[in-house]
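Person: Please comment on this record:
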Amino acid sequence: MAGNAKSMTVPEQDIEQAIRKIDPSWRLQKTQPLGGRACALLVSTGAAAQRRLILLTHSQRDRERNPQIARDEFHLLEILKEAGLPVPDALHLNETHQPPFLITSFAEGSSDFGDKPILAHCHALADILRSIHATDLGKFDLSFLPDFTNAIAEQQDARSPGQRQIQAAMRRALPRVEFNGQVLLHGDFWPGNLLWGDGALAAIFDWEDAMLGDPLADLGKSRLEILWALGFDAMNAYTARYLQLNRKLNADALPFWDLWGASRLSHFASFVPEPNQFPRMKSQYDAFVSTAICRLEALYEGQ
């Protein structure tokens, strides 16, 4: 059995026990940390057959914010699978282990959209986000998920003048923001959390930040992510497509949600793919924030 056990938060003997609860005939063969909270598992399923699975944990900060986060993500995956969304199968949940963990199926695919035109990619992203937001809250009980109003109330440690400027602009606008009806929010929607196979969407993953709230919250945060990944024109095409698909939304307050997304991504220096990309990402971030503040102030000027 191979694997770097020292880098894992769950000992291999505990993973082995969990695997056998899924199927008594399965045996753990190999573990491979994937970075962050995920670890790939290679499992023998009898004879010469093998299967790959994914083990997921949550950070201490996330567990302090929501002690039931593992259970919530596991239950959400079950519901989303029933709702017809392409998500990994929820196979096993261990809430007694510290940290708690869940095991899901492994989704085949690539985060690379391929050689299709950027416009097609932007439209596909908007279509996927709309499908998430269209989850029927009357049919599926998602009341166990956090409410976005709590997320707004959470005050981040504004260490920089830029962060303080964002929070000040949001505080000034908040009493006048008109919220849209609640929908299921992915919470971290960006191209890196999608897998594609044969030109079609294979899976949407990383649901640990899911909550209920205004759909513009997902749109605003993902606009910044898409700006970084694909550029300004792509961000605008993505936005236009999403709003075209959701004409009944009141999108006036989108600059507020842009700032909300920017505040949640203010630590972007910690996940820059390559150091030489930081200047570009910072320039884009600063322009995104500046534009949102100007539009927000113009929207509520004189009110």
User: Anything to note?
Assistant: The chain has a mean pLDDT of 91. Residues 34 and 40 are 7 Å apart (CA to CA). The domain at 5-105 is CATH 3.30.200 (Phosphorylase Kinase; domain 1). The longest helix spans residues 278-299.
